[in-house]
Design goal:
Largest sheet: 7 strands, parallel
Strand order of the largest sheet: 3-2-1-4-5-6-7
CATH class: Alpha Beta
Number of domains: 1
Helix content: 40-55%
CATH topology: Rossmann fold
CATH architecture: 3-Layer(aba) Sandwich
Structural class: alpha/beta
Strand content: 5-15%
Number of strands: 7
Oligomer: single chain
Order of helices and strands: EHEHEHEHEHEHHEH
Shape: globular
CATH superfamily: NAD(P)-binding Rossmann-like Domain
Radius of gyration: 17 Å
């Protein structure tokens, strides 16, 4: 992929203050895209956008809860008002609330649904409306997980939402293909982010049970994400790409 693969494109990426989302924003910007970077933490969002700007990438921060309609509308409006168009949306934001099924509280259940499903659904809706108006097509990408494919202890609600996102992508093929809008998902496995990279036990455990011998890095996920929103994937839609070093092929439990 050339350095300026995304020149002239405008992208929105949610949950991008750090980790996978940040690396996706960074790679998009360095390859020519103008990027709206969102995170619920305004300090983290501004700091992340500044890092990318310092690397000569075109990136603007729009902080806020990506599951709230006001934030969704602000992201889309800012993208269009600032850069003139909207071509790529990557719904990366999500929350993980662990808990035993028999004791799982309603408050946690509905929080996970609101962010993981509601935030993705309504951002996709708002973006697709704009892409339809532009008549130039576009790409939507949702962040699933291997937990949407394989059972994982204490993640019933989370895994359910990730499986649902893959079904949403498939269903939107019917709705959005007439407007040349592609919709796909990626499903990362264990990944070394700011939350996990300094946990020696996490790295050791997942290195031992991952066939390729290590967890993913944010760059591993970002590389796949960028392919699916690039022109090289213009005939791919309704698909899911698992990025887990082979873990789901054998699925050993980390517990």
């Amino acid at each position: 992929m050339s350095r300026k693969e995304f020149a002239g494109k405008t992208a929105i990426v949610t949950g991008a203050g750090q980790g996978i989302g940040f690396e996706i924003c960074r790679q998009l910007a360095l390859q020519g895209a103008s990027v709206i970077l969102n995170d619920i933490d305004p300090v983290l969002s501004e700091r992340a956008a500044l890092k990318i700007t310092e690397e000569k990438g075109d990136c603007r921060s729009v902080a806020g809860d990506s599951s709230e309609m006001e934030t969704i509308e602000r992201m889309v409006t800012t993208a269009v008002d600032t850069f003139g168009n909207l071509d790529i949306v990557i719904a990366n934001a999500g929350i993980t609330l662990f808990g035993n099924f028999l004791d799982y509280p309603a408050s946690s259940f509905y929080s996970v649904l609101k962010v993981n499903l509601g935030g993705t659904f309504f951002l996709a809706q708002a973006a697709a409306r704009r892409m339809k108006e532009q008549s130039t097509g576009g790409s939507l990408l949702f962040m699933s997980s291997v937990t949407g494919h394989q059972a994982h202890k204490d993640l019933a609600a989370y895994g359910m939402t990730k499986a649902a996102l893959e079904m949403l992508a498939r269903n939107l093929v019917i709705e959005l293909s007439p407007f040349a809008i592609t919709v796909n998902t990626v499903a990362p496995g264990a990944t070394l982010t700011e939350r996990t990279m300094f946990d020696a036990a996490y790295k050791k455990t997942w290195s031992a049970i991952t066939p390729l011998g290590r967890p993913a890095t944010p760059s591993d996920i970002a590389d796949a994400a960028l392919f699916l929103v690039s022109d090289k994937a213009r005939h791919i839609t309704g698909q899911n790409l698992v990025i887990d070093g082979g873990w789901t092929a054998i699925s050993p439990s980390p517990f």
